[in-house]
Write a structure and sequence with these properties.
The protein is built from eight helices and ten strands. The chain is α/β, with parallel strands linked by helices. It folds into two domains: about 90 residues, no CATH class; about 140 residues, LpxI C-terminal catalytic domain (Cytidine Deaminase, domain 2, 3-Layer(aba) Sandwich), CATH 3.40.140. The strands form three sheets. The chain has a six-stranded mixed beta sheet, sandwiched between helices. It starts with a strand and ends with a strand.
Length: about 240
């Protein structure tokens, strides 16, 4: 890569991340026109979405004219429709949106034990059970994460996000349980790729859960070495399952 241009979002993108770019343009969430102008001016041959926009901010938009025009055409507002519309807009100006997994293929979860304590037989069964449930809730556009314990669903992720789902499961299940994170069937890898990071592991540990199960080849372990080290330190099992 000869040059990296970053479109950074106020209140979302960390200054440390922005500092990694050769050029950076700051904007508010909802300033689609500014995003497109920055992408076109950069001369980029492609774009990649990195990081996330907090779900609550999708209800605190201050959209510009271009964003309003797109929002007017969207009846169901979720990650797929919103980011899909942005991807289409970028494509029209000659900056196609690439898969978010580009350059990160080695960070995708493998099959089997990844780190931390090994799963017990009962937990392996729960992993398969949670995978089945999570694939169904994600298919319905509800969420890509569930928490299960002894064949019971403790929590299902919705708009609140993964960490709050984990915290709720910890309160309901009073310890134990597995976080299961999957990709949506037919997942558009350009955006909304499911991720397990250090914060996910630390949140699971605080909630008293036993482990995190990721769909192999579909969930990113963001900075895998640090995620595994955090799991080892907190005695959280990391396990990959094939759908």
């Amino acid at each position: 890569m000869r040059e990296i241009a970053i479109a950074a979002f106020e209140g979302e993108t960390s200054p440390e991340t922005a500092a990694l770019g050769d050029t950076v343009t700051w904007m508010r969430v909802g300033q689609l026109g500014k995003l497109l102008d920055a992408a076109k001016a950069s001369g980029a041959s492609g774009a990649i979405m990195a990081g996330q926009i907090a779900p609550k901010n999708l209800f605190d938009l201050r959209p510009d004219v271009k964003a309003l025009l797109i929002l007017a055409t969207i009846k169901e507002r979720n990650a797929e429709t919103l980011f899909g519309a942005i991807a289409d807009a970028l494509g029209k100006i000659g900056v196609p949106l690439l898969p978010a997994t580009t350059f990160l293929e080695n960070e995708l979860a493998p099959v089997g034990h990844i780190g931390g304590p090994k799963l017990k037989d009962r937990e392996v069964e729960d992993a398969a059970f949670g995978l089945r449930i999570a694939k169904e809730t994600s298919r319905l556009d509800i969420g890509q994460t569930v928490v299960v314990k002894n064949g019971t669903v403790l929590a299902v992720e919705a708009f609140e996000g993964t960490n709050e789902t984990i915290e709720r499961a910890g309160r309901v299940g009073r310890g134990g349980g597995l976080v299961v994170k999957v990709s949506k069937p037919g997942q558009d890898l350009r955006f909304d790729v499911p991720v397990v990071g250090e914060q996910t592991v630390e949140t699971a540990a605080r909630a008293g859960l036993r482990g995190i199960v990721a769909e192999a080849g579909a969930v990113l372990l963001l900075d895998r070495e640090r995620v595994v080290a955090t799991a080892e330190r907190n005695k959280i099992s990391l396990f990959g399952v094939q759908s």
